[in-house]
Every structure is written in C-alpha cells, then in structure tokens.
C-alpha cells in the first residue's frame, strides 16, 4: 500500500476534482473496504451497494479530511457510518 504521504498527493489532486486521483484511491483501498463491509453484512449484493455509497460519500466529503491524520482512519470512519 502507498504511504500516507503518497496518498496525500493523490488527495490534493482529488480535491481539485481529478477523476484519475479518485480512481487511484479507489483501486488502492476498495479491496480492504469491500472485505470490511462484507464481514459485517455477509451479503454480496448489499456489500456492493454499501461500497458504492462509501465511495460516493468519500467523493462528496474529501474536503473534510484532515491531512494531519492517517487517511485510512478517516476512510474507516465513513465505512462504519
């Protein structure tokens, strides 16, 4: 996995609306997010819908992310909401 510093470069791009940055972050984190959600709901269809919603929320709320904190902790906050 990329370092927190590397992720911050992509987050800066995402904050400017860069779809390639969103795709990079999705590809970097989606497997972990999917596995976490599936462990909770234990249903593939529901998991897919929830994961889609998580990344929609990430896109909408990335401006609230505090870059002094680890990105994955922030993302996990979205997952568990």
Automatic annotation (TrEMBL):
Residues 30-78 form the RNA polymerase sigma-70 region domain. Pfam families: Sigma70_r2 (PF04542). One of its GO terms (biological process) is DNA-templated transcription initiation. It comes from the Bacteria. InterPro entries: RNA_pol_sigma70_r2, RNA_pol_sigma_r2. Gene3D superfamilies: 1.10.1740.10. Coiled coil: none annotated. GO terms for molecular function: DNA-binding transcription factor activity. SUPFAM superfamilies: Sigma2 domain of RNA polymerase sigma factors. This is RNA polymerase sigma-70 region 2 domain-containing protein. It comes from Bacillus cereus HuB4-4.
């Amino acid at each position: 996995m990329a370092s927190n510093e590397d992720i911050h470069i992509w987050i800066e791009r995402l904050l400017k609306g860069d779809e390639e940055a969103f795709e990079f972050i999705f590809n970097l984190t989606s497997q972990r997010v999917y596995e976490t959600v599936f462990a909770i709901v234990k249903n593939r269809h529901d998991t897919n819908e929830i994961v889609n919603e998580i990344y929609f929320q990430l896109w909408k709320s990335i401006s609230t992310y505090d870059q002094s904190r680890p990105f994955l902790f922030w993302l996990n906050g979205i997952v568990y909401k």
